[in-house]
Design goal:
By secondary structure, the protein is of the alpha+beta class. The chain has helices spanning 3-19, 24-37, 76-91, 96-108, 114-131, 136-155, and strands spanning 42-48, 51-58, 61-68. A 3-stranded antiparallel β-sheet has the order 1-2-3, with helices on one face. The longest helix is centred in the last third of the chain and has 20 residues, at 136-155. The chain starts with a helix and ends with a helix. The mean pLDDT is 92.
């Protein structure tokens, strides 16, 4: 067992969880579960909104990795997929190479088209406008503004 490879894989899963909108406690639990599934019993995980820190002790030797969170989004499908992967790893003895490939596929996954994201950003802003007392013209204006903001922020 390559401890550093397990730490890299588990911390990558934690980073992807945080970047996709997962909570810090979920990241800590998932990374710990992955490490213990690969035979690392002494694991320390600390997740903040800006970093994931993982350390492991095997045969008296301490290894650690620190990863920064540089981007954020909300993709609950990725959160679900990573949690399912960690539970599957703990149930079955997967090879780490297979797990790395699955995580790479999860990371590449784009479940919603850009047009759909733009449209529903407009719908969300329009609904909020109505909920806060706006009229029909305000609703259409906020729909347009929501779509425009999502389109512009999606470019960068």
């Amino acid at each position: 067992m390559d401890v550093n490879r397990v730490l890299e894989f588990s911390s990558d899963a934690g980073v992807l969880l945080l970047q996709s909108g997962g909570e810090t406690y979920r990241v800590e639990e998932t990374v710990t579960r992955i490490c213990s599934s690969f035979g690392i019993e002494k694991t320390g995980v600390f997740a903040t909104p800006t970093a994931v820190i993982v350390s492991a002790t095997v045969d008296g030797k301490i290894s650690s990795v620190v990863k920064r969170i540089t981007k954020r989004s909300t993709d609950l499908n990725k959160v679900f997929e990573i949690n399912a992967l960690s539970r599957t790893i703990s149930q079955y003895n997967f090879d780490i190479a297979v797990c790395e490939k699955i995580l790479a596929e999860i990371e590449k996954g784009n479940y919603y088209s850009d047009n759909r994201k733009i449209f529903f950003a407009g719908v969300g802003t329009a609904v909020l406008t109505v909920l806060f007392g706006g009229g029909v013209p305000d609703m259409f204006a906020s729909f347009f503004i929501g779509c425009t903001v999502k389109y512009v922020t999606g470019l960068f």
